[in-house]
Amino acid sequence: MLSKDEFLSQVQNTLDAFCDKQEGDFEAISPDLATVVEYTRSLLQGGKRFRALFCYYAWASSLKDTQITQADLQGIVGIGASLEMFHAAALVHDDLLDQSDTRRGAPAVHKRFETLHQQRKYAGSKERFGVAGSVLVGDLMLGWSSEIFGQALLHSRNKTVEAACRDEFSLMRVEVMAGQYLDVLEENAANTRDIHEAVVRAEKVILYKTAKYSIEAPLRIGAAFAGADQSELGVFTQFGIPLGIAFQLRDDVLGVFGDPSVTGKPAGDDLREGKRTVLIGLTKESLAESSPSMVTTVEELLTSRELTNEQIEFLQKVIKESGALDKTERMMAELGDRALETLDQAELEESAKQMLRALSLKVIHRDA
Fold first, then answer.
1. What DSSP designation does 156 have?
2. Which of 250, 196, 202, 241 is nearest to 218 (CA)?
3. Which of 185, 177, 210 is nearest to 276 (CA)?
4. Which of 92, 99, 209, 342 is the 20 to 30 Å CA partner of 106?
């Protein structure tokens, strides 16, 4: 069994080696393509690696055969690398859709393409070049994720395990795209919807855009690679869904109140992007009872997408005073407790189970 650091090191080595090969193949086509791999490689450095780790510990906790082979380890490392590549691809597209300028304290990929356009004095619109470049990079990374995943599954113990992993991976890809569309739709259609349905709609976005692909899918894929049956996979769903929702609720709070020096995002970035989160839904529900006119004000500000620092501070104050922040914190605590209770009761290998618990606590209490 690999330690956490050994596993993550091997995941990074796998990603680096893959990028090295792609760089050679692309430069053989044209030196201009080196930029594509450079931007991909930079996004694959660092990060919290939650998805790879949840996958790894689910695999380790589900193994029934204590004889772990080199093929087993190569497979789970490759799967972890594929999940990190998939996540990075989702970030590229998400930043573009949200018109977010930064990622982890550095320019988002579409902004990097804009800068390239400007520095080299290309013709046309730098914004359109940024959009085109980031769409293509994100699409390539989705394809590369599938390629790494397919290579990893060559180390499966049998065809049944391979088929189960492919099914889980395919479902993950479909569900996250569904969630992304629902998120975009809500940002644009929120003003036409019933205020009292805002929280329910936001929760559905969380479920499909984040909870499933960030926590549940990595857990189920890892367990499937260990040979878990459908009943055993169901335990990881019962554990992963509430934890995944809590994970995104924490992200929503950080997107409004997070410290930019820690999150790598500007203060109140979700407000500038007009995100219709559970936090916003709870705020509007509360205001609809106490101050209906304020709902209109909040909606107008979220729709503008060009908020000043003063307007950000105003919205932060409104959210706090509405009680929405406190309600969201309580929801996170309850969801976290439910997830950990399920984990505690699960019949899993104890040391890996404890690592899942420790990782879950980091997810719930993180500040970035």
1. -
2. 241
3. 185
4. 209
